[in-house]
Design goal:
By secondary structure, the protein is α/β, with parallel strands linked by helices. Helices cover about 25% and strands about 15% of the residues. It folds into 3 domains: about 5-100 and about 175-370 and about 420-445, Glycosidases (TIM Barrel, Alpha-Beta Barrel); about 110-160, Oligo-1,6-glucosidase, Domain 2 (Oligo-1,6-glucosidase, domain 2); about 460-515, Immunoglobulin-like (Sandwich). It contains 14 helices and 18 strands. A hairpin with a 4-residue loop joins strand 13 (about 470-475) and strand 14. The longest helix is centred in the middle third of the chain and has 17 residues, at about 335-350. The model has no long low-confidence stretch (mean pLDDT about 95). The structure holds 1-deoxynojirimycin.
């Protein structure tokens, strides 16, 4: 029997560097996480997804992996990771880890060997080394983080990096690369991990020598699906461990092809994440999601935030509530009270939909994006690569406030690697645990109900007018969200299970969601 827990799971994303610091160096680690496992068990989540925990020079928050078979010393040791997996399992929590197959660190053994071996060597064939066009790079591709996608090495060749220069791209036409990653998957499956989140999953195949063909030169190219078919055979051989794709693609049909029965199990629903707070737009995204997933038998996922995107309470407090990577809207006027009100409603909408749901650490606390981190402290490579025009993603990576009245808010004893705003005194886990009206209290209640009767299954829309999203789930629970400016009548029900804000008698106020029996 293959396992199916993931079809309706609530998965909590831990950004290890910012979750909890166990050794006083200001950086989160496994000791800190292990010390707070009880918090996660109590929250009612089914699994934890950890961002990369491998040895890394941290040029891109660990997405520059130097060794795929060990743990970054700042975070702990391999033995500690094994202990952590065991402890989580004993609490009934599954563990998903990140795998980064598009690129390694320039400090990986493979890349260092390729550099040393020189032009034409077998070691260089595992990356994309090419001669330039005179003093120009081999082609005009631009890095996703800004600037050229090629860097020149001392012997005159150039290597490709779709992200930072410290992240050389693997060449997936090399059978050695395929074999290496099969082995990496097995290494961690053997240590008990329940699945992988696959970084930048759609961009592995590219041919920088080819003439442009009018299509995106590295996204969703022929051959990429074969990689995941191979991986699926590996994961199935472990009794159904799972593969979750980070697949950013506007074309929903193309996106869904990654979820065919012999490829990945699920993939992040970024169309939903980027959608503005607008009833028609949300309804369309939800319908497209359901329509593209159903024929494949794959459960959708619902995501409001992660370590790459502006925090929801900030996004929803702006005049333009959409999100796009090339348009982070840093510094745009924000009404945080409105944003928080809407984020509460969005949470109930998200957790009621059929399929899996992700909660990014701090989302359950309603943390806002921190937009005033001094430039000198910013570590996201986007800041420098954009010529300091885009402040990047550090604002959603600020360490978690656990307790107390002042920074570091119980995060650890050292100075947090990014400064926490003093105003977070009201947003600590401790403060919110004592307040039944807090965001944390809402997430706890919602996850409890969700665990008992939501998750995987189907939904039926109810028509309550153009400003309202309303649907019934298989258990009979009805979710109603009012996205319009005026209160609307609440449909007939026997009880109110949960509301994102105060109700006005029989009316559901603006930007409010309710779960009804
Ligand atoms: C997606 C990850 O989520 C992001 O943080 C990272 O910078 C890129 N992939 C490159 O690995």
């Amino acid at each position: 029997m293959l396992e199916t827990w993931w079809r309706g799971a609530a998965i909590y994303q831990v950004y290890l560097r910012s979750f909890a610091d166990g050794n006083g160096d200001g950086l989160g680690d496994l000791a800190g996480l292990r010390g707070h496992l009880g918090y996660l068990a109590e929250l009612g989540i089914n699994a934890i997804w950890l961002n990369p925990w491998y040895p890394s020079p941290m040029s891109d928050g660990g997405y520059d992996v130097a060794d795929y078979r060990d743990i970054e010393p700042i975070f702990g040791t391999l033995a500690e990771a094994e202990k952590f997996i065991e402890e989580a399992h004993s609490l009934g929590i599954k563990i998903i880890i990140d795998v980064v197959p598009n690129h390694s660190s320039d400090q990986s053994a493979w890349f260092k060997e390729a550099l040393a071996a020189g032009p034409g060597s077998a070691a260089r064939k595992n990356f994309w080394f090419r001669p330039g066009r005179g003093d120009l790079p081999p082609n005009d591709w631009q890095s996703i983080f800004g600037g050229p996608a090629w860097t020149r090495v001392p012997d005159g060749e150039w290597y490709l990096h779709l992200f930072a220069p410290e992240q050389p791209d693997f060449n997936w036409t090399s059978p050695e690369v395929h074999a290496e990653f099969h082995d990496v998957l097995r290494f961690w499956f053997d240590r008990g991990v329940d699945g992988f989140r696959i970084d930048s999953a759609a961009v592995l195949i590219k041919d920088p020598d080819a003439e442009p063909d009018g299509k995106d030169p590295y996204t969703d190219r022929d051959g990429v699906h074969e990689i995941y078919r191979e991986w699926r055979r590996v994961s199935d051989s472990y009794g159904g461990r799972i593969l979750i794709g980070e697949v950013w693609m506007p074309d929903q049909e193309a996106f869904a092809r990654y979820l065919r029965p012999d490829e990945m199990h699920t993939a992040f629903n970024f169309a939903f994440l980027g959608c503005p707070w607008d009833p028609a737009a949300l309804r369309e995204v939800i319908d497209t999601t359901m329509d593209t997933h159903a024929p494949l038998g794959a459960p959708p996922t619902w995501v409001l935030s992660n370590h790459d995107v502006t925090r929801p309470v900030t996004r929803y407090g702006r005049a333009d509530t959409s999100f796009g990577h090339d348009d982070r809207k840093h510094g745009m006027p924000t009404d945080l009270a409105l944003g928080t009100h809407r984020a509460r409603a969005a949470a109930l909408l998200t957790m009621a939909l059929p399929g899996g749901v992700y909660v990014y650490q701090g989302e359950e606390l309603g943390l806002p994006e921190v937009e005033d981190i001094p430039g000198a402290l910013l570590q996201d490579p986007i800041w420098e690569r954009s010529g300091r025009t885009d402040r990047g993603r550090d604002g959603c990576r600020v360490p978690i406030p656990w307790s107390g009245e002042a920074p570091p808010f119980g995060y650890g004893t050292g100075e947090p690697w990014l400064p926490q705003p003093a105003s977070w005194a009201q947003l600590t886990v401790e403060a919110q645990s004592a307040d039944p009206g807090s965001m944390l209290a809402l997430y706890r209640k919602a996850l409890l109900i969700r665990g008992a009767e939501l998750g995987d299954g189907t939904m039926t829309w109810l028509d309550l007018g153009p400003d309202v999203l309303a649907f019934r789930r298989d258990s009979g629970l009805t979710c109603v969200v009012n996205l319009g400016p005026d209160p609307v009548p609440i449909p007939a029900h026997s009880s109110v299970l949960l509301a994102s804000g105060p109700l006005a008698g029989d009316l559901l106020p603006a930007d409010t969601a309710v779960w009804l029996r």
